[in-house]
Every structure is written in C-alpha cells, then in structure tokens.
C-alpha cells in the first residue's frame, strides 16, 4: 500500500483502432475547437480537402504516401525514431510546416509536428475541463494538465530556438522536459479516466509522446554523430553499451568541479516572521515582488530565522529567484500537503514548488509534516532549469524531494525520507549530500522496504538521470537503532525504477550498512529491469559490497566515468557560479 502503482507507458503502438480514436478525437475537437485548432484545421482543409484532414495530425503507418525524391532527409532522420514508419508518415504528411532543406530543418519539422499536435491536446483538455463542472477530481486533473501542457509548449519553443542557435545540449534538455509534461498530463488523466473523452485524450497524448520522442531521438543522434546519418539509430542507452560522446578525457578527470551558490549575495528584499522590520512577512509575498521574466538579474530574498507555515510557489515567469536563509533548522518553510486531501496530487502537495529557471537556495529547511502514513507528500518540487541548491535540508517521508524536470545541482544538502524520497524525471546532480532514511511506519519494528530513489525516465533519448557523487547514504540515529535491532526486516535500496528508462548512479559515495546486499529493488515484476541503468563506481561502506547485487545493476566502466561529471551530465561548468 505504500507503493505507487507502476505505470507502463504504452508507447505509440500503431494500430488501426488507435487511428480511429484519433479521427474521432480530431472530429470532437473540431466541434468545440479553439482558435489555434481552427487555424490548423483550416490549413489542413486548404491542403487536403475535407476527407484527408487527418493527414495533418498524428499518423498511423499505413502505406507510405510521401514522394521519395523529396523526403531524403525524412527517412534519414527517422532512423533516430523508436518507430521509424510512424515518424516518416507524420513528417512527410505534415504540409504547412517549416521548409526542410537540411537535416537540422528536419529536426525542426519534427518539433513542429509535435507542437502542432500539442495544441490539439490542449484544446481536448480544455473540453474536458469545460465538461467537468461539479467533478472536483476531474477538473483538477484537467487544470493540472493545462498547466503542464503549457510548460511543454514553452519548452518546445525554447528547444526550437536553441537548435537554431546551435545549442544542442540545451535543446535536448528542453525537449526532454517537453516530454515529461506531456506524460504528466496523461498520468493526471489516468486517475480520472471515467469518460470516453478522457480516454480519447489519453490515446491522443500517447501518440503525441511518440512524436515528441521522434524529435528527441534525432537530437540525441545529432549531438553524438552530427550529420553522419549512416550512424543514426533508434536511441540506445548504457544498458545497450552505448556511451555518449563526452568532452574532456575519461577516467574521472571532470570530478573536481567546485561551484555553488555565490557567497555575499546582496538581498533585494527581506522576509521575517511577523514582518516587523522586514519587507514581507511571508516568503510568497517576497516571491510575488520579483520582476517577471528578468533573465539576466537575480532577485535575492533573505528569509530570516523562523518557521514559515506556508505553501510557496515560484512560477515560470519568476526567474533567478534566490532564497537565502539563516541556516538549516533556523529558517524553516513548512507544510503538510498530501495526496490524502481532496483534489491534491503528488505534484501539488509540495510545500515549496519552483518552476522558474535559475532558482537558487541556501541555508534553509523545507519540510512536509504530513507524516509517514499518508503516502505521497512532497517537501520540495523543482522544475527549475539551471538551479543550484546548497546547504539546504529537505524533510519528509514518502516523496520528500521531487526533482521533477530539467537540470538541477544540489550540494551539501541533507535529504531525509523513506519511500522513493528522491524522485522525478530531471537530470539532477547530488554533490556531497547526506541522504538519510527515517522511520516510517505506525508499527516501526515490523520492518519495511525503502527505496532512496525512484527516477522516472520514460524515453531512452531523454537527457535525464540522477547522479550521486561523494554522498553519504545512511539512516537517522533513530532509524539506525531500529535497523540494528533486526536488520533482516529493515530493507533499504538505492533505488527502484518508477519508469521504464530509470537512470541513477552512485559514485565515490559512502553506502552505510542499511543498504541491502541486493542494492536495488524491482518496481513490479520485471518492469524496466532490462531498460533501466543503475550504476555504481568506487563506493565505500558496508552497504557498498557489490558481490550480492541484483544482476540488472551495473558497475560503471572506469573509462566512461566522465559521462557523469557535472560538466557532461548537466553542463554545470557553464552555469553554476564558481566564484565566491
Ligand atoms: C476523488 O479522488 C479521491 C482520491 O484521490 C477519491 O477518494 C474520491 O472518491 C474521488 N472522488 C470522486 C467523485 O471520484
Ligand atoms: C503559458 O505560459 C506563458 C509563458 O510562456 C504564460 O505567459 C501564460 O500565461 C501561460 N498560460 C497558461 C494558461 O498558463
Ligand atoms: C510558443 O510560441 C508560439 C509562437 O511564437 C506562441 O504563440 C506561444 O504562446 C508560445 N508558447 C508559450 C507557452 O510560451
Ligand atoms: C481506465 O480506467 C479503467 C477502470 O475504470 C481501467 O480498467 C483502465 O485500465 C484505465 N485505462 C487506462 C489507459 O489507464
Ligand atoms: C476507457 O478505456 C478503458 C480501457 O482503456 C475502458 O475499460 C473503459 O471502459 C473506457 N471508458 C469509457 C467511458 O470509454
Ligand atoms: C551513520 O549513522 C550512524 C548512526 O547515526 C553513525 O554512527 C555513523 O557514523 C553514520 N555514518 C556516516 C558515514 O556518517
Ligand atoms: C562482500 O560480500 C561477500 C559475500 O556476502 C563476502 O564474501 C565478502 O567478504 C564481502 N567483501 C567485503 C570487502 O566485505
């Protein structure tokens, strides 16, 4: 009961039933469509006449209808797809898209096709929302969906721009996030799938994921092989023996990175309990005061010692917001949101949730006090690309730290919980952090199984994963007492695969006795065991003995270590401040 259900994304399996569902979805959307939809449909009508307008949308791989003399790049580029026939069909039948004269143009076309269908998904979800008055669960799910699909659109826009500017790593990071959000919408609807409209929308989103995956696979191949399309293939992972091109030589030379939240930042505003002598009495008011979309400027909020009982949201438009506290345990932001409450999802249970890029925090505690018997209850959720969190503490039980999407750097942090307490589908780097398992059950001596991580990568081309470098994995003092009283019933694992391509590595870390010899825990049956990548290298401690590890975990070959450096994994050398 403590465990979330495994969700197997059924990736764009082409079949004729699906195609009919898509046609129906298109027709339904047509009836109640938005302005955007009207535009795309009218374009379709102009080009194909009424009966063929489905050609404009997600396609099923029937007979190829393209002209081989003009689609050279399409068939080359679609070698990077997990489903080349659908890829070729969707690109070659997408009239009205940008012109494609080069391989890069073809990747742009794949993004365009994905985004065009994303707009349709948005209008389908709007329809669900409009039809859900009086149904709290469904209207909440639809609202979450609209929010995350907008993030998906935003990240897709950035992807296209980065690709034009030659920023292949950024474009991969952003397109990976676009997929995260499309999947989140699917996932939100899954829990309210009582109507046929919801069913159709889920099927549509599933196909949309396939289209987005095509674009992402092309970027992965472009990054690694450039225009040598003879080398392009469907995305492979470390499990297939595929190691990405890296900068610098191998052998761990990239592991001396030093950077973090700069010292001596000048506060723009101050927050203190009660407000006396400060600018604001709540953290949220201070966040609201930050300028919108000021990409080149930090907005530093000094949060003085005190316990702030509030839910804090840093929205997309508040960029480079910095939280400076008076120290761990002194400045405390606390909440108790959890999925047991009406209308609350894991996503919005977070005490602090950050979406704006460039977030930084230092010297504070963020906690969720919902307790060990209420399931998912997030303390900190982050979607902030290029975020730096140093010397912070995160306290909770199940799902403490939701490193949801994009590139995040945590240094010298203390993260406490029990079930899946570091999870999400970001590319996150944990440098010298203390990871502590806390007791969880009503009847704590009975025993339990805890997974420290549950990384949620859904696609082999996604940029994401968790890297732990120089961390300590231990239990709290209280937990270790319990543990030693009967080690055989208290099982702790480094991670388990929330999604099919889960990726997590532990490098030069101390794994204390509480980590079981198995090391890693299955999610459900053999789900993801052939596709995940769980790597270890050069760890110490009595939990680091690898002789009893599950067969589906790996030792990272020394020559590929550099793949997981701050530079190569999250390009941290380009954005984490290195001066005081
Ligand atoms: C809404 O969801 C909660 C659990 O999240 C469930 O207990 C409740 O029955 C649902 N309500 C409806 C009307 O489906
Ligand atoms: C979508 O995101 C944009 C930022 O790119 C924002 O201005 C807009 O308000 C958002 N729309 C919704 C419905 O959230
Ligand atoms: C993405 O770009 C399009 C075209 O410029 C724009 O209309 C749309 O609002 C953008 N989406 C977001 C979420 O910013
Ligand atoms: C939708 O819900 C039904 C039960 O109401 C379930 O059997 C089915 O698997 C769900 N569909 C999906 C795609 O999750
Ligand atoms: C939705 O789909 C599921 C299976 O995917 C099915 O069991 C259920 O009956 C469908 N519900 C409606 C209302 O169509
Ligand atoms: C792990 O925790 C125990 C109990 O609190 C403590 O004695 C031990 O020193 C810790 N290990 C590390 C490596 O910090
Ligand atoms: C690792 O575990 C194996 C079997 O459990 C044991 O034989 C071996 O001595 C251990 N190695 C170390 C270094 O503790």
UniProtKB/TrEMBL annotation:
The keyword Zinc-finger appears for this protein: no
Residues spanning the membrane: 20-41
Molecular-function GO terms, alphabetical: enzyme inhibitor activity; pectinesterase activity
Subcellular location: Secreted, Cell wall
Superkingdom of source: Eukaryota
Major enzyme class: hydrolase
Pathway: Glycan metabolism; pectin degradation; 2-dehydro-3-deoxy-D-gluconate from pectin: step 1/5
Protein name: pectinesterase
Organism of origin: Oldenlandia corymbosa var. corymbosa
Lineage: Eukaryota, Viridiplantae, Streptophyta, Embryophyta, Tracheophyta
């Amino acid at each position: 009961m403590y465990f979330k259900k495994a969700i197997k994304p059924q990736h764009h399996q082409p079949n004729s039933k699906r195609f009919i569902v898509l046609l129906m979805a298109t027709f339904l959307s047509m009836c109640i469509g938005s302005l955007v939809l009207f535009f795309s449909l009218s374009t379709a009508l102009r080009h194909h006449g009424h009966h063929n307008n489905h050609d404009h949308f997600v396609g099923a791989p029937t007979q190829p209808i393209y002209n081989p003399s003009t689609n050279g790049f399409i068939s080359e580029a679609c070698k990077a797809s997990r489903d080349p026939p659908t890829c070729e069909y969707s690109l070659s039948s997408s009239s009205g898209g940008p012109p494609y004269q080069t391989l890069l143009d073809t990747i742009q076309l794949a993004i365009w096709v994905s985004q065009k269908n994303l707009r349709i998904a948005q209008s389908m979800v709007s329809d669900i929302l409009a039809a859900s008055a009086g149904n709290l669960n469904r209207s909440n799910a639809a609202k979450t969906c609209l929010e995350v699909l907008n993030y998906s659109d935003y990240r897709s826009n950035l992807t296209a721009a980065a690709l034009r500017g030659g920023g292949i790593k950024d474009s991969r990071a952003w397109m990976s996030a676009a997929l995260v959000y499309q999947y989140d919408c699917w996932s939100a609807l899954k829990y309210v799938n009582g109507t046929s409209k919801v069913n159709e929308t889920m099927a549509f989103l599933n196909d949309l994921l396939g289209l987005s995956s095509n674009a992402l696979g092309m970027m992965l191949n472009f990054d690694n092989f450039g225009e040598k399309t003879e080398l392009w293939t469907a995305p492979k992972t470390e499990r297939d023996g595929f190691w990405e091109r890296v900068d610098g030589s191998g052998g761990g030379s990239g592991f001396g990175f030093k950077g973090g939240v700069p010292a001596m930042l000048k506060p723009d505003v101050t927050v203190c309990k009660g407000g006396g002598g400060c600018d604001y009495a709540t953290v949220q008011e201070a966040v609201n005061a930050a300028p919108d979309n000021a990409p080149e400027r930090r907005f530093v909020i000094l949060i003085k010692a005190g316990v702030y009982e509030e839910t804090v949201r840093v929205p997309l438009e508040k960029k480079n917001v910095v939280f400076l506290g008076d120290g761990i345990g002194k400045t405390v932001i606390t909440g108790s949101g959890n999925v047991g409450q009406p209308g609350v999802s894991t996503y919005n249970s977070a005490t602090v949730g950050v979406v704006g890029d460039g977030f930084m925090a230092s010297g504070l505690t963020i906690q969720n006090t919902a307790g060990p018997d209420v399931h998912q209850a997030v303390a900190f959720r982050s979607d902030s690309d290029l975020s730096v969190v140093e010397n912070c503490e995160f306290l909770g039980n199940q799902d403490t730290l939701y490193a949801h999407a994009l590139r995040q750097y945590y240094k010298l942090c203390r993260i406490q919980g029990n079930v899946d307490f570091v999870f999400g589908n970001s590319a996150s780097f944990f440098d010298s952090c203390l990871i502590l398992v806390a007791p969880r059950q009503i009847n704590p001596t009975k025993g339990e199984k805890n997974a420290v991580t549950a990384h949620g990568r859904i696609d082999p081309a996604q940029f994401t994963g968790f890297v732990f470098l120089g961390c300590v994995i231990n239990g709290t003092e209280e937990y270790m007492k319990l543990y030693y009283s009967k080690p055989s019933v208290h099982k702790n694992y480094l991670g388990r695969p929330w999604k099919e391509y889960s990726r997590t590595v532990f490098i030069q870390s101390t794994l204390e006795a509480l980590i079981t010899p198995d090391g890693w825990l299955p999610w459900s049956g053999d789900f993801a065991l052939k596709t995940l990548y769980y790597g270890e290298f050069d760890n110490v401690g009595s939990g680091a003995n690898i002789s009893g590890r599950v067969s589906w975990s790996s030792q990272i070959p020394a020559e590929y270590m550099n793949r997981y450096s701050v530079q190569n994994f999250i390009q941290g050398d380009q954005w984490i401040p290195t001066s005081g």
